[in-house]
Amino acid sequence: MPxxxxxxxxxxxxxxxxxxxxxxxxxxxxxxxxxxxxxAKDLKTLQDEYRQLNKSCFILGASGExxxxxxxxxxxxxxxxxxxxxxxxxxxxxxxxxxxxxQEVVDFEKLDEFSSAxxxxxxxxxxxxxxxxxxxxxxxxRVDHDYVLKSAQLxxxxxxxxxxxxxxxxxxxxxSFLYLRVKGEVEAEVEELGFERFSIFRxxxxxxxxxxxxxxxxxxxKLLGPFSYFFPTAYSVPMTTLVQAMLxxxxxxxxxxxxxxxxxAIHTLGKMGEEKKK
Length: 278
Description:
This protein is of the alpha/beta class. Helix content is 47%, strand content 14%.
């Protein structure tokens, strides 16, 4: 027994060391996402200049956790002169701050009949998404691929210049895992539409207390808790950081048609301007 116990401890220790090494690599690796030209001005100046452009935006998925927080921060920041929520049902807002938010109720199964909802917006934010556990395989593909792609097509036809997509860490159209494959496929197909600017956000596990029950995700968050403390950018990201990264990225100038923002970049973008606030 002592020999078996010792062997088990050795195997566990070896696996732990390997995991820590991989985590450390992910924590310190990654390209510099801020070339000097992007940071020539401070964030507040960029935000002020962006407001003067009187841009309009729409949000898909505003009833979900990310979309809800995104709408809140957009309303508070007043970055856009017109804000439209596109969804399958009317949302109830008690706060007076939301009084000017436009709402377009659509049937995602017949989106072509609601093309007018997507017209006249400069920027689009897509936070649509479900899970296989909640909607089944076919339902997941329909929401995370079909609805997203059709929305992007209508947005492009309606004049949208900058499309922002919440995707997932590990998204890969060649993946053997359905979730990651579908995310990768829709990224590639939206890119083919040729937006003036297309920003893809690939967050790792989102740290958020959801209203919707997702036991698997809850367990993963608890499991990653200690790793998130020591390696904050490797496996998780606070949902509020993701949202702030999306808004900060929107005001930053870019000479690229496609921004691919992995988890570490999301952390960096989301924390821009924090030093000046302190």
